[in-house]
Design brief:
Layout: H1 3-19, E1 41-44, E2 53-56, E3 62-68, E4 73-74, E5 77-79, E6 87-90, E7 94-95, E8 98-104, E9 110-115, E10 123-128
Parallel strand pairs: 1-3, 2-10
Antiparallel strand pairs: 3-8, 4-7, 5-6, 5-9, 9-10
The structure holds copper (II) ion (CU).
Length: 129
């Protein structure tokens, strides 16, 4: 196989991979150009989050900095209800050790639930005020 043909196959595979990660999951593998130093941070290790409560300001988009410290797939999603039906943000799943910067849209004041969709026991509360 020629190098050119091999490269085209790789590009096609990458395109398929990108197309396959739809569903609204969001994750940036680099920080935004201007990361607010007050951005909420959370990490995962031993199938657990390091924090039970996160607090963010209401009605303002924010960046959630998520550090996955282990070679296990995790994400952070945000739900408006404890029954986890009304999802307001779906973070992309990834294995660590790695960090992702989740672009979370503005949320109305209230108490939300954050959870790892892969491990439902990993959860906490997001206080938006
Ligand atoms: Cu998880």
């Amino acid at each position: 196989m020629s190098a050119f043909r091999a490269a085209r196959l790789v590009l096609a595979a990458v395109g398929l991979a990108l197309a396959g990660c739809g569903g609204g999951a969001a994750a940036d593998d680099h920080p935004p150009a201007s990361l607010d130093p007050n951005s909420p941070r959370i990490s995962a290790q031993a199938i657990a989050f390091d924090q039970a409560v996160l607090t963010v300001p209401a009605d303002r988009p924010f960046t959630l900095v998520f550090e996955n410290r282990e070679n296990v797939p995790h994400n952070v999603s945000i739900y408006a209800d404890s029954g986890r039906q009304d999802r307001r943000f779906e973070g992309g799943v990834f294995s660590g050790p790695a960090t992702r910067w989740y672009p979370v849209p503005a949320l109305a004041p209230g108490t939300y639930v954050f959870v790892c969709d892969v491990h439902p026991s990993m959860s906490g509360h997001l206080v938006v005020s």
